[in-house]
């Protein structure tokens, strides 16, 4: 049994202009100790997917359906009290904005200690000692001093380290990281990615990494799921996905990113663009969600939505023509 | 030799943050502290660096959005930093800007037509309103938006389309130089590629010069001619694209390049992880500003500030390692990729 099994997850929002199908029938699983990346552009539903797994979506206007089985229990059926015992303990989350997700009026030590006192029943002194230990783990210099400081006294990179320390304090089995390095500079991003890789080996938590940055995916993920317009369009092990993308959207995404070193090999001077825009999610989409922007779309695509099909070992894609495409290439 | 379109000489911009009127020792943010570069006609110069390095401040100083502390901004041989209002009017026509956030840089109450017509009227580029319409239509064609869309308001467009409107507005004044301040950073991957391609096409068609301010090195490498790397208010390296990406000579540039995650799983390459954070520009380190994080720093770096020095291939860098014999300089080997 996998650690996390998400089945036919649907998250819909009631809006004045109709029902927004932010996530529309997504299924995936995460093994113990594995890193799964969920990739896609803004509005594809990747963040909503992660938030709804922890039931952080307000209902209403949101409505979550499907199953989210964590270690065999369906999280969507738990009471609020049972859910609170899981959040921050078995499953924890790192958000994008280290500036806004820390409480500005509490010391860093208090905020790390909070989860420990709540979930593991430590007293204040023990919690602080453990907080110092956690700050050491995430590589913050002078942790005994820093533990008494407030978030505004720390730089962006350090705040993100504190967020990671909070998330890991209770030894979670699953860590959900929603764009953990997007707000950071590249040299700081490199530090944080390095830290996450290192900690993964030491702590052994499974990670669901949500990102739009394919470079970050290539560096830390083992398996990748590509989302588009609220659906899963492709999933494969990371090397397979980058070397042999099957879905035209994935191919387009990979072509649209310039690679460092491109000027040296004298590659073409034009980026591949995906024409058009993401379709509105408030109207039902007939056929394939990507058909409107796809270069190889036919009437078949505009009429029938393609099912997710196994295109190669451990490699699924939702495209009527994906297999042919791959054989030809 | 032909004159460069834009020359920036020893530009400084310091902001006072304390002290002053009622005494107290004034302290300053040294946002930009002595930066010089040139941009030729039709050329793209990219200004790269991390947040707080002063790259946007340089862009805004070039646009003369504020008065600079000292130094010169020269457009086509004419000094602009101390220009009168009249000369500034023509200057503002010749130098335009595209900002990062297309959501906040368009007036939500103006129709696209009015947004585009404003600079045309302002600079007297059309004699009649029929001519204004003709120009507006041409601009829409140029940036790849449907002509009917001129009747709409900004909120009716997506982010990428809005950025096209911002570009059209900049082009309306028929500028020679456009400052792009993180112009594609807020866009999604697939839309980003569209806008990057558009900027390149426009540059070729119209012979525009671009001052492209960005932190995204892969995009910069894709579309620039030359690159200037900034760190804490100073230029540390300036070189043509190939020179800089193949064989960066400053340790900071090397670290920056090696920190960019590559979209190639399992890629083996040199990885330099810099320790610590960027120091505060209120109290920049003495000597070389990078010495606190530099893996190669030695005694001289802590006391003496290095100057930009030229190496073959129009390759400028400010590092004391340049004065070492070639065999001892770790910066002369090409990057392992």
TrEMBL record, chain A:
<dbReference type="GO" id="GO:0016887">
    <property type="term" value="F:ATP hydrolysis activity"/>
</dbReference>
<dbReference type="Pfam" id="PF00005">
    <property type="entry name" value="ABC_tran"/>
</dbReference>
<feature type="domain" description="ABC transporter">
    <location>
        <begin position="4"/>
        <end position="254"/>
    </location>
</feature>
<dbReference type="GO" id="GO:0005524">
    <property type="term" value="F:ATP binding"/>
</dbReference>
<dbReference type="GO" id="GO:0005886">
    <property type="term" value="C:plasma membrane"/>
</dbReference>
<keyword id="KW-0813">Transport</keyword>
<dbReference type="GO" id="GO:0055085">
    <property type="term" value="P:transmembrane transport"/>
</dbReference>
<keyword id="KW-0547">Nucleotide-binding</keyword>
<protein>
    <submittedName>
        <fullName>ABC transporter ATP-binding protein</fullName>
    </submittedName>
</protein>
<dbReference type="InterPro" id="IPR003593">
    <property type="entry name" value="AAA+_ATPase"/>
</dbReference>
<comment type="similarity">
    <text>Belongs to the ABC transporter superfamily.</text>
</comment>
<dbReference type="InterPro" id="IPR003439">
    <property type="entry name" value="ABC_transporter-like_ATP-bd"/>
</dbReference>
<dbReference type="InterPro" id="IPR017871">
    <property type="entry name" value="ABC_transporter-like_CS"/>
</dbReference>
<dbReference type="InterPro" id="IPR013563">
    <property type="entry name" value="Oligopep_ABC_C"/>
</dbReference>
<keyword id="KW-0067">ATP-binding</keyword>
<keyword id="KW-1003">Cell membrane</keyword>
<dbReference type="Pfam" id="PF08352">
    <property type="entry name" value="oligo_HPY"/>
</dbReference>
<dbReference type="InterPro" id="IPR050388">
    <property type="entry name" value="ABC_Ni/Peptide_Import"/>
</dbReference>
<dbReference type="GO" id="GO:0015833">
    <property type="term" value="P:peptide transport"/>
</dbReference>
<dbReference type="InterPro" id="IPR027417">
    <property type="entry name" value="P-loop_NTPase"/>
</dbReference>
<keyword id="KW-0472">Membrane</keyword>
Automatic annotation (TrEMBL), chain B:
<dbReference type="InterPro" id="IPR050319">
    <property type="entry name" value="ABC_transp_ATP-bind"/>
</dbReference>
<dbReference type="InterPro" id="IPR003593">
    <property type="entry name" value="AAA+_ATPase"/>
</dbReference>
<dbReference type="Pfam" id="PF08352">
    <property type="entry name" value="oligo_HPY"/>
</dbReference>
<dbReference type="GO" id="GO:0005886">
    <property type="term" value="C:plasma membrane"/>
</dbReference>
<keyword id="KW-0547">Nucleotide-binding</keyword>
<dbReference type="InterPro" id="IPR013563">
    <property type="entry name" value="Oligopep_ABC_C"/>
</dbReference>
<dbReference type="GO" id="GO:0005524">
    <property type="term" value="F:ATP binding"/>
</dbReference>
<keyword id="KW-0813">Transport</keyword>
<protein>
    <submittedName>
        <fullName>ABC transporter ATP-binding protein</fullName>
    </submittedName>
</protein>
<dbReference type="GO" id="GO:0015833">
    <property type="term" value="P:peptide transport"/>
</dbReference>
<feature type="domain" description="ABC transporter">
    <location>
        <begin position="6"/>
        <end position="257"/>
    </location>
</feature>
<comment type="similarity">
    <text>Belongs to the ABC transporter superfamily.</text>
</comment>
<dbReference type="Pfam" id="PF00005">
    <property type="entry name" value="ABC_tran"/>
</dbReference>
<dbReference type="GO" id="GO:0016887">
    <property type="term" value="F:ATP hydrolysis activity"/>
</dbReference>
<keyword id="KW-0067">ATP-binding</keyword>
<dbReference type="InterPro" id="IPR017871">
    <property type="entry name" value="ABC_transporter-like_CS"/>
</dbReference>
<dbReference type="InterPro" id="IPR027417">
    <property type="entry name" value="P-loop_NTPase"/>
</dbReference>
<dbReference type="GO" id="GO:0055085">
    <property type="term" value="P:transmembrane transport"/>
</dbReference>
<dbReference type="InterPro" id="IPR003439">
    <property type="entry name" value="ABC_transporter-like_ATP-bd"/>
</dbReference>
